[in-house]
Design goal:
single chain, 23 helices, about 40% helix, Ubiquitin-like (UB roll), 5-stranded mixed beta sheet
Length: about 500
């Protein structure tokens, strides 16, 4: 920034002139970037990463700290896995470090598959060296000499930049047989996954790397004891590893001072859905949902009302307006009926049908089920059949009780986390929006006007502005309209596609 502007203008004057500082912009002002600390650098330049203190933490780990000291720092920091389960990272490293056997592995889980989630993708594409540095430190801590980054092939830019970053790190002596003269060896490769959601589960991911079908296996034994090719293995996700360099440089006390008593540090969320400001948000743990949605996200567009927010993707749950002041940490979100997950945050306004939302996520889970265990394979199929029936006007008395019984059976009987958390979207919507289910079943009506099979479309003649927008947008030629006259709908041609409701700016379609 030119010096004369800095010295002669106050922050308020800059805002009035349309050139505010970054922290004066609502979207950025309440954030605390650690994982996103290097936003804006050239991700294809290792020199720019080094200029921002890149690889200093790796040098410190290799030359100034013992493996046990690294583990102790991570344990004291309170860092928990950001992939969803929230297991203490330092404890995982400690278990792997103490496991027997000479050959060990470090894996970065970059198989991000939740609808609406793009946290890992953004970090890999914009700051790949932070993940590499975190893996070098993890390898040093547990005594591993080989690592893999499991990234889905659907992220071609991320894969390309990771491979470029690895080649640059090798050229600078940061990977290989004798890293920076420390005597420590570590090699790293990118493994491209085929895009199966279940391969985000760690045991299925390892089977995929081994060249087998990606299907979960029972635990124990846990990967820290018997992981990839039955060797001790540490698996951390992208965000977890990107935190590691900052913790080693700034200290465990610095990181532990952020967040809450049991949830330390920051969390990155992919804020999307019915919210004005969409994008990646990094905030200290414990930040209320209201702050994220309204202060950072800018609130709900079109002056509509906030209805709920989906946290944790298909494995998560819907948090309603009554819980909007809930702090975002592992324990509080669980009490509200959802889970932190990897960081997807989908905001929904009052035009969202919660029954259809549950149907959407169960449909995704059922489609992505590996089919190995009957509770997940058959249970989610039956859950989906019931939800589809309710949204299509075929709901019956007793459906809700049957859904709850199925949720219990699937959650208790499924083999892996995918199946065990499959009921969450249904259970959370039943808990908070049960009346909406009942209206669908008993009145054959969708209060949010989203379930096409339950709708009969009419034009409110008093609200119609005679603009013809709905007429121009109708794909089935079902709307009749003449200039300066209100529109009307031909019921025989109407396919209930809901384009007219989406395009009418005056809410004249009911």
């Amino acid at each position: 920034m030119p010096e004369e502007i800095h010295s002669s203008s106050t922050g308020n004057e800059r805002v009035e002139k349309g050139i505010p500082y970054l922290d004066e912009i609502r979207f950025f002002g309440r954030q605390y970037p650690i994982v996103l600390r290097n936003r804006g650098i050239d991700p294809e330049s290792i020199d720019q990463y080094i200029a921002r203190d890149g690889y200093r933490a790796a040098v410190k780990a290799l030359h100034e700290m013992s493996p046990q000291e690294i583990v102790t720092v991570i344990k004291r920091s309170g860092l928990r896995g950001r992939g969803g389960a929230g297991f203490p990272t330092g404890r995982k490293w400690e278990l792997c470090a103490g496991a027997g056997g000479g050959l060990k592995y470090v894996i970065c889980n970059a198989d991000e598959g939740d609808p609406g989630a793009f946290m890992d993708r953004a970090v890999l594409e914009s700051d790949p060296h932070s993940v590499l540095e975190g893996m070098i430190i993890a390898a040093r801590a547990v005594g591993a000499h080989k690592g893999y980054i499991y990234c889905r092939a659907e992220y071609p830019m991320a894969v390309r930049r990771l491979e470029l970053a690895i080649s640059q790190a090798r050229a600078y002596g940061l990977l290989g047989k004798d890293i920076l003269g420390s005597g420590f060896a570590f090699e790293l490769d990118v493994y491209r996954g085929a895009g199966a959601f279940v391969c985000g589960e760690e045991t299925a991911l390892m089977r995929s790397i081994e060249g087998r079908r990606g299907m979960p296996r029972p635990r124990p034994p846990f990967p820290v004891n018997r992981g990839l090719w039955n060797r001790p293995t540490v698996i951390n996700n992208v965000e977890t590893l990107a935190n590691i360099p900052s913790i080693l440089l700034q200290g465990d006390a610095w990181f532990a001072a952020l967040g809450t008593a049991k949830s330390k540090g920051t969390k990155v969320f992919a804020l999307t859905g019915d919210v004005n400001n969409i994008g990646l948000v990094e905030v200290p743990m414990g930040t209320p949902l209201r702050t994220i949605i309204y202060d950072i996200g800018g609130g709900i567009p079109k002056k509509r009302k906030f209805k709920a927010v989906q946290l944790g993707g298909p494995s998560g749950g819907c948090v309603p307006e009554a819980f909007i002041d809930t702090p975002v940490d592992y324990e509080s979100i669980k009490e509200a009926g959802a889970i932190m997950g990897s960081g997807g945050m989908i905001v929904m306004d009052d035009h969202t049908c919660m029954v259809d939302m549950a149907r959407f996520f169960v449909d995704f889970i059922q489609d992505e089920s590996c089919g190995k265990c009957p509770p997940c394979r058959e249970g989610t199929r039956r859950m989906l059949d019931i939800l589809e029936g309710i949204t299509q006007g075929r709901g019956e008395s007793g459906d809700l009780e049957t859904l709850e019984e199925l949720c219990q059976a699937v959650g208790e009987g499924a083999l892996c986390g995918l199946g065990q958390t499959a009921p969450n979207p249904v259970l959370s919507t039943l808990r908070h929006f049960r009346e909406e289910y009942k209206v669908h079943i008993h009145e054959k009506r969708c209060p949010a006007k989203q379930c096409g099979a339950l709708l009969r479309f009419e034009v409110d003649q008093d609200r119609c502005q005679k603009c013809g927008i709905c007429y121009k947008g109708c794909p089935s030629d079902a709307i009749r309209w003449k200039k300066n006259e209100p529109a009307w709908i031909d019921k025989e041609k109407c396919t209930r596609c809901m384009t007219c409701i989406a395009t009418c700016p005056f809410d004249a379609i009911f």
